[in-house]
Amino acid sequence: MGFGHLGQAAALDSGHLGGAVLDVFRHEPLDTRSPLWDHPRITITPHAASEASREDHARYIADVIAQCERGQRPALLYDTARGY
């Protein structure tokens, strides 16, 4: 959507949109005080949207295993301190 968070909620409240699944925000993690968290027609996912093929998923998993075997931290590991 090309409009800000408040515009998204307003479009849902007015009935212009029936629902929204939001995955990426300009500032992440999304502020815990954001009204989007509690909106009944909004689902927020943890910045995990993807259109990767099975081959891409398999390659990613193999890369993560290799990073762990080398004692490295996987590049896209969930960071509880950051909230995503």
Lateral strand order in the biggest sheet: 1-2
Indicate the mean pLDDT.
82
Whole-angstrom Rg: 17 Å
Element pattern in H and E: HEEH
Query: In which range does the helix fraction lie?
Result: 25-40%
Question: What is the CA-CA span between the terminal residues?
Answer: 21 Å
Report the biggest beta sheet as strand number plus sense, adding barrel if it closes.
2 strands, parallel
Which shape, going by the Cα principal axes? Answer: elongated
Count of helical stretches: 2
List the helices and strands and how they pair.
Layout: H1 5-13, E1 20-22, E2 42-44, H2 54-69
Parallel strand pairs: 1-2
Description:
The protein folds into two domains: 1-49, no CATH class; 50-84. It is 30% helix and 7% strand. It contains two helices and two strands; from the N terminus they run H-E-E-H. The two termini are 21 Å apart.
A few lines on this structure:
With 84 residues, the chain is mainly alpha-helical.
Which features would summarize this protein structure in a list?
single chain, 84 residues, two-stranded parallel ribbon, 30% helix, 2 domains, 2 helices, mainly alpha
